[in-house]
Design goal:
It is a single chain. This protein folds into two domains: 128 residues; 406 residues, Porin (Beta Barrel). By secondary structure, the chain is of the alpha+beta class. Helix content is 24%, strand content 39%.
Length: 542
């Protein structure tokens, strides 16, 4: 038996347990459960081995008695016919039978001992990885190099042939009880060396809270998520699984956008929300058979509060800015883990744009209604072949509708997205992800987005450095392939993104200063007509 091979396979299987777990804690929890099962199997094997030893001893005694009786019969036969060869034949048959039994018994004992050795080594490996620690940590480091090209409407071009970034996520989690957990993530995201140009127009936008960890900025480590999560199988005596959490919630890399980012999804639809947020959420499973659920989300994107050393610290200030609040509802009618139909609606109040004087400060301009519905299929049909069974397809439709502030709208030239009226924008998004054409575990994908003139999502945290492709007022095309170099630990991805803009303001805010859509025509100065990004990353996760 090849023990090193068996142990390496066992370790790989155990350490890869539940690779699709939604949280880092769940992965460790699965490993610990597997360790308990292994310990039980070891105890069972040892007990069986002990019982077998007793049975073997008893069998030897019985066989000795049978042999004695055989010897007496042989002796009697010898007296009757000494000349015959029966004695030798009988003796040879008994000896051969005894040798066969000894060999079979020996093989079983060796097999059991090897199995015990293998299992005990696997348990030791699990112990080393869980470390006996309550607070579990996981590292996610990514190096990326990008080639970015911009074509301006006046015929000029801008580019960066090799923009390099480091991104580090440090995940942590602790489950204090079966119901109560803490989940957090620290993040670091920066360009190699130091970045020039950050002192140009609107440098304060660089560190706005919504994109603090999505933007390649400085070498500070910031909190990306930090919240507690309560989970229960019953709600007020009803058989209704539910959850509640509050803190800095995970609201980037949401549903659908997580496919190309090779991450587990956060709950919001990435079609309309992709920013960091502080808030609370609560989900209720209405029907377990059909996966029907509803989730209420509340958040605050900006607090209206004075400075610490002001005369009245943290009091609301009389200014043009109010607290930005958001309330949303996610309703999923059906989700059987293969087919999923989900909807989301939210209203964001007191949204902002740059002041007309371009000072770098903000004005409150109004609210925004937004929502979407999407369908995804993880596997086209059933038993149609390995390729189609592992292919994912999805389609999503979204809308946005402005709600201008009456006071601001009354001022000539102000409003939302260049209009004092409520304007509606729409977007659709199609995509597929399918098995690699060159390896067993890789994933390739194709996506297409289209946004209308007044389309405005809140997707500033999207992991695309040329600007959010989902926010494009125009067309966006994307192709990528993700390949795994060392199990699920070391991976690489090559991605190509191309955006063809029809209107300006795709990556602006919500007012007139940066969000007004203007039809792009040849000759317009300081206007990006199209952009493309070729990105290669190498990523380590463990």
């Amino acid at each position: 038996m090849n023990k090193p091979l068996l142990l390496s396979l066992a370790a790989a299987a155990l350490l890869g347990t539940n690779l699709n777990a939604q949280t880092m804690y769940e992965r460790f929890e699965a490993m610990e459960k597997e360790m308990t099962k292994l310990k039980q199997e070891i105890a069972t094997l040892k007990s069986a081995k002990s019982v077998k030893s007793v049975k073997s001893a008893k069998k030897v005694d019985e066989e000795a008695e049978d042999d004695a009786e055989d010897d007496e019969a042989v002796a009697s036969q010898d007296k009757e016919d000494v000349a015959s060869g029966d004695k030798d034949e009988k003796t040879a048959t008994v000896a051969a039978s005894s040798e066969d039994e000894e060999e079979e018994g020996g093989e079983e004992i060796v097999s059991t001992e090897d199995r015990l050795f293998e299992l005990e080594e696997a348990v030791s490996e699990l112990n080393r990885n869980t470390s006996g620690s309550h607070l579990k940590f996981q590292i996610d480091y990514r190096f990326a190099i990008e080639n970015m090209q911009y074509k301006m409407a006046d015929g000029t071009e801008a580019e960066n042939d090799a923009f390099m970034t480091n991104r580090l996520w440090i995940d942590m989690g602790y489950k204090a009880t079966n119901n109560l957990s803490f989940i957090g993530q620290l993040a670091y995201n920066k360009a190699f060396g130091v970045r020039s140009g950050t002192a140009n127009s609107f440098p304060s936008w660089e560190t706005i809270d919504w994109i603090a960890n999505e933007n390649a900025y400085d070498d500070n480590i910031r909190v990306r998520t930090a919240y507690f999560l309560w989970q229960d199988t019953q709600f007020m005596g009803l058989d209704m699984p539910w959850t509640f959490s509050i803190g800095r919630r995970p609201s980037t890399n949401g549903q659908l956008v997580n496919l190309r980012d090779d991450d587990a999804p956060s709950s919001p639809s990435g079609h309309t929300i992709n920013v960091e947020f502080d808030g609370a959420s609560s989900q209720f499973t209405l029907n377990k058979e059909y996966g029907t659920s509803v989730k209420l989300c509340l958040g605050r994107g900006m607090s209206n509060a004075d400075a610490k050393f002001a005369t009245t610290p943290y009091a609301e200030v009389s200014s043009d800015n109010s607290a930005i609040d958001i309330a949303g509802l996610i309703f999923t009618p059906y989700d059987n883990k293969q087919y999923k139909l989900s909807t989301m609606y939210y209203y964001a109040a007191n949204l902002i744009d740059a002041k007309a004087d371009m000072s770098g400060n903000f004005d409150t301009v109004g609210g925004l209604h937004s929502g979407n519905v999407y369908f995804s299929a993880k596997g086209i049909g059933k038993d149609l072949g390995a390729f189609l069974d592992d292919t994912t397809v999805f389609a999503s439709f979204a809308f946005s509708k402005t709600d201008p502030n009456d006071k601001v709208a009354a001022v000539v030239g102000n409003g939302m997205l260049g209009s004092t009226d409520s304007e509606t924008g729409t977007s659709f998004w199609l995509g597929t992800q399918f098995p690699s054409l060159i390896t067993d575990d890789g994933k390739w994908g194709l996506e297409f987005n289209h946004g209308s003139k007044y389309w405005r999502p809140i997707t500033y945290g999207e992991d695309t450095n040329i600007g959010s492709k989902i926010a494009a007022r125009g067309d966006a095309y994307e192709a990528y392939f993700t390949e795994y170099l060392v199990d699920d630990i070391l991976s690489m991805q090559l991605r190509y993104t191309y955006i063809d803009y029809d209107y300006t303001g795709s990556n602006g805010f919500f007012g007139n200063a940066s969000g007004t859509p203007t039809k792009i025509v040849d000759g317009m100065a300081n206007t990006v007509e199209s952009a493309q990004d070729i990105r290669l990353y190498v990523r380590y996760r463990y």
